[in-house]
Amino acid sequence: MGVNRYLKACLVAFVGLMALMYALQNIVNIDAAVGVVGAVLAMADHEYYARSLVPALTNPALAWLGLIVIIASELAAGLLALKGAWDLWSARAADAGTFNRSKTFALLGCGAGVIVWFGYFGAVGGAFFQMWQTDLGAQSLNGAFQNAVYCALVLLFVSLEDV
Q1: Residue 102, CA distances (Å) to 95, 107, 109, 110, 113 in order
Q2: What is the pLDDT of residues 87-144, one digit of tens each?
Q3: Phi and psi (nearest 5°) for 20?
Q4: Which residue from 66, 59, 61 is spatially nearest to 128, judged by alpha carbons?
Q5: How far apart are alpha carbons 73 and 134 in whole angstroms?
Q6: pTM of the predicted model, to two decimals?
Q7: Interatomic CA distance for residues 98 and 88, integer angstroms
């Protein structure tokens, strides 16, 4: 049993806490959060690439739907990662095979985080809705990049086989 097992459990727990904190911050600041999502979907204030592949989505129901998907996904990533951290911690003294089999929820949680912050924010928000064109969108995109990298690095580290 090496220090890597402790590190894996700890880092996955931090991924879980991070995801839950973002979800809860979105809930506490729900009006601002739906405003940001609405602005991204509406492609508000786009000056550089004024035309897009799709029309602006200005229906408030779509902004709420997008925010609900984001919050639900952040909650899922957080809960999966925390369950995964617990499983890793519980198996820290077990044989390598048992410890490797305990990684399922940790990998799912970290992977869900990558989907949220790279997939939703990077691919959909950044590339499709061009959110990088506004200060607010660029700040969100930069933060999402950091979160995606954290989740991806922990995902890669945890996925390494323990021997």
Answers
A1: 11, 10, 13, 14, 19
A2: 999 999 999 999 999 999 999 999 999 999 999 999 999 999 999 999 999 999 999 9
A3: -65, -40
A4: 66
A5: 24
A6: 0.95
A7: 10
For residues 58 and 71, give the distance between their C-alpha atoms in angstroms, rounded to a whole number: 20
Residue 162 near residue 99 (C-beta atoms within 8 A): yes
Sign of the CA dihedral 121, 124, 130, 134? negative
Which pair of tokens denotes residue 140? 């969100």
- pLDDT tens by residue, 77-89: 999 999 999 999 9
The gap between the terminal CA atoms of the chain, to the nearest Å, is 9
The token pair at 139 is 């700040």
Instruction: Yes or no: say if 90 and 98 are a contact pair by the CB < 8 Å rule.
Output: no
Number of Cβ within 10 Å of residue 32's Cβ equals 11
**Residue 142 tokens, joined:** 């930069």
Residue 44 in tokens = 């508000």
Report yes or no: 19 and 109 within 8 Å, Cβ to Cβ. yes
User: Distance of CA 15 to CAs 87, 96, 133, Å?
Assistant: 14, 23, 28
Q: Report residue 52's pLDDT band, with 50, 70 and 90 as the boundaries.
A: confident
